[in-house]
């Protein structure tokens, strides 16, 4: 009887462990990802966690003011959180950077944007667990504020992101188009409120579940 019980446990326990494993989702980004000015529980990664449910673990790796450009004023590359997310080895990585890169002091290095973004994507794709990487088109900047320039995002950055996605063969999550005409959800013209973040979370959710 004991031998039979041991055999059953040996067979079943690995499946129990597998069933309990959660899909790890890392949201990498700037203050919009971090949730600047939003009440607790309402930033887009937190709302994404609610949408995805218990089978997923979503972590917020957003840092305000950070750039994708290595020569930017506050590069994400230099942050401890960048190393943390690499070490966490997520199953899914959602990158939403670029808004702060549109600032004049950063966009003067725009010639490096494609190269730096490709390298950033590859740093995740090279992880041992080979995560699924998504890159986001930034939401619109509704007016110039904090030196963030709407025209640069729309006319220069969005086409570059499409080119980068094709080059690296990663899917794009379009957060620009769904937020057009939703100025009321971003009181300062840049950072969405909880309502705006609900739209972002829904778009990311649809992409992941697709």
Automatic annotation (TrEMBL):
Keywords, A to Z, come to: Hydrolase
**One annotated GO molecular function:** sialate O-acetylesterase activity
Q: Which domain of life is it from?
A: Bacteria
Pfam families, sorted = Lipase_GDSL_2
What is this enzyme's EC? 3.1.1.53
What top-level class of enzyme does the UniProt entry assign? hydrolase
In this protein, which residues make up the domain named SGNH hydrolase-type esterase? 27-198
Which PANTHER family does the protein's record reference? Answer: SGNH HYDROLASE-TYPE ESTERASE DOMAIN-CONTAINING PROTEIN, THIOESTERASE 1/PROTEASE 1/LYSOPHOSPHOLIPASE L1
- Stated name of the protein: Sialate O-acetylesterase
